[in-house]
Amino acid sequence: MSSYPRAAAVLAALIVGLGGCAAKKSAPQTSEPFPSATPQRVTDVTTTVFPAVVRLDVAQEVYNDGKRTLNRGIGSGVIFDEQGHVLTNFHVAGRAAEIYVTLFNKERISAKLIGDDHWTDLAVVQLDMAEVAKKKITFSHANLGSSSDLKVGQDVIAVGTPFGLARTMTLGVVSNLERTFYPQQETIDDYETGEFSNWIQMDTPIAPGNSGGPLVDLTGKIVGINTRGIRGQALNFAIPIDTAKEVIAAILKTATADRKGRVERSDIGIDLKPMQDLEAYYEIDINKGVLVNSVDRNSPAAKAGIKPQDIILSVNGQPANIRFPEEIAPLRHVISQIPIGQEVPVEALRGGKPMSFKVTTVKLESAVGEEREAKAWGMSARDVTRAYANTQQLDDDLGVVVTSLTKGYPADKAELEPGDVIRFVNTKPIADLEAFMKQFEESTKKKEEKVLLQVLRGRGQRDVLLRISY
């Protein structure tokens, strides 16, 4: 895409990249532990995967200056099944309002977003199969491999559309299989990402436009989705395909004709810190436990009595021994896979004394809620999620938060500000974005020229009167 994720401070120069891949004819066979990149093998693999490479031209829904707008960009993707499903990045196709896919044979067809998952920076798109049939188009699909079989030093190929240059391949080696950017939290347009798996690091060159395409081993199998890199530094990163396969399965299982597929995860509301260099201070054995760095307000962990500086020894019977940063993501993944609403035993130490807790998991929520436009009022607003309420130290997650304003429109003239939380519209309580939009639509239908809002700004409460001309 032409817009990239906003990475953590240490990776401010990150550039997103990806490529697409397909497999129709059988890949070369070998008895080697993993095949090396001979000229013939590279040629065979590229010939195998190119037919599933796609270019994505995407218009993503964004909100600026109180208005819904479309942000256009280019990325890559890979067809992975006979139903025309395409795997790509969230930052390429997430929140997409329009998608066009250019196939290997240069045919351009429309597609739609089936589901997205910002937590892993992945999305699934589907070709318009009616259009495919009408145009009598044929396409190939790629074979998904396993990232757990990858080895450091192994040759890998990235295929995609860097800078819009379709069907481009680059060759390199796997540099690291457990790269993490902890403790800096990464985001994509404020959406959290990269918390449930580590990254594949490779020196395989990728560039803007490669984003969403596959990293391929020398048997022709997809082992990762190329996502980001540091320009000119031979430091590039891919999402493990094992992570992607979990996301694909969840999205396809939950997608319906009128609703995007989603990945539901569990949360208990704690931030964890590795024990490296802290064992002596807490008088605990090396490779034992993980430190609770913070506890979310009103979270299951807080309600169960877990406190910062507790040392968690196990979660749901599984040891929680975290000495290094790269061990955080696997534990977060374990917690996320526990069924939502299940009571989970947590064993810990506090001041050297054993402690036991019972924590009931809740659905993981982003700090970024769904966003909509209230056009006549000249503003956009997001749902207040539990995570957002925690970060802003709100007492609850009721209402909507103002995200942007249109200069000269009623909300701007009434001196609303981004960050204000609207709790009431004309004395009617606003529980969430759906309730807010209902009140907005009713008011505009009635052509009400005055609308009274009750808002929270910081810890204060105020009334705001909108004056609207129709």
Q: Helix and strand layout, with pairings?
A:
Blueprint: E1 14-16, H1 39-49, E2 53-64, E3 67-79, E4 85-88, H2 90-93, E5 96-102, E6 108-117, E7 122-127, H3 129-134, E8 143-144, E9 155-160, E10 168-179, E11 186-188, E12 191-193, E13 199-202, E14 214-217, E15 221-230, E16 235-240, H4 241-254, E17 266-267, E18 270-273, H5 279-282, E19 290-295, H6 300-304, E20 311-315, E21 318-319, H7 328-336, E22 343-350, E23 353-360, E24 362-363, E25 371-374, E26 379-383, H8 386-391, E27 400-405, H9 410-413, E28 421-425, E29 428-429, H10 433-446, E30 450-457, E31 460-467
Parallel strand pairs: 8-15
Antiparallel strand pairs: 1-15, 2-3, 2-5, 3-4, 4-7, 5-6, 6-7, 9-10, 9-14, 10-13, 11-12, 13-16, 14-15, 15-16, 17-24, 18-19, 19-20, 20-21, 20-22, 22-23, 25-26, 26-27, 27-28, 28-29, 28-30, 30-31
